[in-house]
Amino acid sequence: MLPAYASLPEKAWFWLFRIFNVLVLLFLVSPLFAIVPLSFSADSFLVYPIRAFSLRWYEAFLTDGEWTRALMNSFIVAPAATLIATVLGTLASVGLASREFPAKSLLMGILVSPMVVPVVIVGVGAYLFFAPLGLTGSYLGLVLVHAALGVPFVVITVSATLAGFNTNLIRASASMGAGPLTTFMKVVMPLVAPGIISGALFAFATSFDEVVVTLFLAAPEQMTLPRQMFGGIKENISPAIAAAATILILFSVALLLTLEWLRGRAERMRTRKA
Amino acid sequence: MSETQSGDALVSFRGVQKSYDGESLIVKHLDLDIRRGEFLTLLGPSGSGKTTCLMMLAGFETPSHGEIWLDGKLLNRVPPHKRDIGMVFQNYALFPHMTVGENLAYPLKLRKLSAGEIAERVKKALGMVRLDALAHRYPGQLSGGQQQRVALARALVFEPKLVLMDEPLGALDKQLREHMQLEIKHIHERLGVTVVYVTHDQSEALTMSDRVAVFKDGIIQQIDTPNALYEAPSNAFVASFIGENNRLDGEVVSVDGEQCSVRLGDGSLVRAQRAGAEAARPTAMSIRPERVRLGALAAPCETRLSARLIEQIYLGDHVRLRLALGPTQGFMVKVPISDVDTAWQAGQTLDVGWMVKDLRALAPQDA
Ligand SMILES: Nc1ncnc2c1ncn2[C@@H]1O[C@H](COP(=O)(O)OP(=O)(O)O)[C@@H](O)[C@H]1O
Ligand SMILES: [Mg+2]
What we know:
The structure holds 2 protein chains of 2 kinds. Chain A is mainly alpha-helical. Helices cover 76% and strands 0% of the residues of chain A. Chain A has a single domain (66-273), classed as MetI-like fold (Orthogonal Bundle). The longest helix of chain A has 33 residues, at 65-97. Chain B is of the alpha+beta class. Chain B folds into 2 domains: 9-236, 3-Layer(aba) Sandwich (Rossmann fold); 244-362, CATH 2.40.50.100. Chain B contains 8 helices and 20 strands. In chain B, strands 6-7-8-3-9-10 form a 6-stranded mixed beta sheet, sandwiched between helices. In chain B, helix 2 crosses helix 3. The longest helix of chain B is centred in the middle third of the chain and has 18 residues, at 174-191. The A-B interface holds A 166, 168-169, 171-180, 182-183, 186-187, 190-191, 269-274 and B 58-60, 79-87, 89, 91, 93-97, 106-107, 110-111, 138-141, 154-155, 158.
């Protein structure tokens, strides 16, 4: 709060600063505010002003075979990619955190490169590499590339958590007779769980809204929700897209809150205080 | 028992060397036998290689050269978790996500003891460090001293052959530290476990240990009982590192048996106990401040000189006096309060005396 002795410029700054913060937040979420009301429009076009409200586009979304298949596909591909990315990314971070690991920064660079390289290049590359192997137009191919795109997030968050890790805990565990695997499961995992959870969340989100690679790799059977929306916009701009978007937003918020709650719990475990 | 270890040695270092970078040796040459049941302290200034020695024994560092034996087994190829060595770390290394009770149960669960026995042993160990009421707290909810005791209990609860402690009291305040020194010493006496303790605090080493190994630059300078280290340091470094010490430099003129004559910088001759000094060579002589007599009390002493009093510092039970003796400006003398003459004044010249056996002529060494 503002102290009693604040001068006029201090008071002015105090309020300006707050107004500015609110504007920044609005800027970040305004695209969401734009799309949500349109999903409740009775109109057949994505336009303001809304003349009548209805749930017809939700009905259309949930009864249309293409949309429901896309929804299903997203819920197959994203969790599978997340699982692979989380396991591999966590293991890589633990390895990279060890003191005597050779060529650490080179490997780190390779591991996070999918995040830096333009996704189009990843898409083309994956297509050219997978085509002779028969992996284009398959769930496996899509899951593998999405996992690769998710790994950098896991590596970065888990490495950050491990950077503050007291390695004497590992030594203490070993001195009491625990082998490396037991030490990892009983000591390292519970303590880096907040990093693993955050990384998994980012990996999931990456796969869940990925369009470009999916454009290259997915056959119609593997259409994911974002890919379906993308196609929908090009062909017929139906407000069913707005309904799909609203459902995605709700789901993402729920996911974020759940994982944040989990992460907070794990974080408290890590630094348990009175 | 292996041929390479003598009967009562639990741990033996044989020609151990350690280099981290392949160039400079952090541990230059270590031959050390640690006896079963003893409390051995590695004492030395920071950077002298104490932790490195401990880590090699625990298995977290590998010797570049040489062998380490534990109870007749060559340790070099045994991983840390198969060595059965308890460890106490400076910052305790308690698992923050487990309660005190779970921390103590951890090594017991790994040994697949029954739930009943685990509960029993955890209770006993907590009783030993007087923390019975705190089994359900998390480490973050304890004070530094309490965490320290949990760490101690955890290192002992699985009854290892050997317990290593690396500056375990370094983070505590002075009063608590002195209290814990005695507590650890008593626990050691009660359990009879072998302890290797690392510290850079000489009074801690003297208080707790059966034997102390004094380290400097990766070499053991002297390994002895606290008493012998203090009363008979074998070189100038040990003399100055353990307790307070006055140093007088000179050259040995003649040697006869246990004693020798030494010419001081100002030309005067004194007799000293020979402890490493050689004829016609420079020597660093050492005498403890409390072994010097002043004024009338110097009269019966074997060696008598005179010195100018520079200042007196009153410390309640004793007075410290700084004198100029020949070229030495900082010659310290400790006099019990009952022996202090109130007539002493700064600037005054006083008689200074000591017994020959208390002035030890050592091989010189840069300390
Ligand atoms: N893991 C390491 N890698 C490289 N140098 C090290 C390592 N550990 C210690 N050293 C070096 O070895 C020397 C002795 O360290 P240490 O054994 O910790 O001494 P002490 O415990 O007596 O203070 C120091 O100069 C330190 O910098
Ligand atoms: Mg150290």
